[in-house]
Structure formats: structure tokens, C-alpha cells
């Protein structure tokens, strides 16, 4: 009887550890090189799926919309970082890009990571 009672908590612990490991494996982000960033972002839309999106045209044009306000800018790769310059902003921002499937983290020195989703652009007509 005592062995049976001991086995249940151990089994539950093993299952919980397995689920945590699976979740961690699914969310394993890897740093992208400049070439990988260009291939992944060209003609794609980066978005939080609610408030904003940025469309990265193959020709380097960036179309941005945040809370209904649309702006135009440009994007390029510099030293394995994604750099953007949007009209109306005072500074160029460059980000280290990490990805896990279509989930993306943009990281800039001294700032919190920006979590977003990279997807095919949706039709907004």
C-alpha cells in the first residue's frame, strides 16, 4: 500500500516535468543572422495581432500602422540586426532578432524585448 501511495506523487512530478520541458522546447527562440532576417521578414507582416503591424516590403520599404495611424519608413540589415527608420521618429532603431516558428522577439540594448508574430499580410480592404 505504501509503495502505491509513493508512486502517485512521483508519477505526477514526472508528468509535470515532461509538460514543462515540452513547453520550453516549443518556445526555444534562436538568434537570426542578417541573411535569415532578410529571408524571414521580406514581404511579411510583423504584428501584435491587435494594435499595430509593420509590413516589410522586399524593396526595403516599411509600412507601419499603430492604432490606426499609418506611417512609411525603410528597413535594412546591419551587422545581423534589423534596422528601421520610420518617418516621424527621431532615431533609427536596430534590433537583434530571435525567432521560434512565427513568434519573434526584437531586442534592443537597454529596452525590454518586443514580442510579436510574423505572418503573411492580411487583406485590409
Task: Give the key terms.
125 residues, alpha+beta, Lipocalin, eight-stranded antiparallel beta barrel, 9 strands
Report the radius of gyration as a whole number of Å: 20 Å
* Tally of contiguous helical segments: 2
Q: Termini distance?
A: 67 Å
The CATH topology is given as Lipocalin
Query: What structural class is derived from the secondary structure elements?
Result: alpha+beta
Describe the structure.
- The protein has 125 residues and is of the alpha+beta class.
- The chain has a single domain, classed as Lipocalin.
- It has 2 helices and 9 strands.
Short description:
The chain has 125 residues and is an alpha+beta fold. It contains two helices and nine strands.
Secondary-structure topology with pairs:
Layout: H1 2-26, E1 30-31, H2 34-41, E2 44-47, E3 52-56, E4 61-66, E5 69-78, E6 81-86, E7 93-100, E8 103-107, E9 114-119
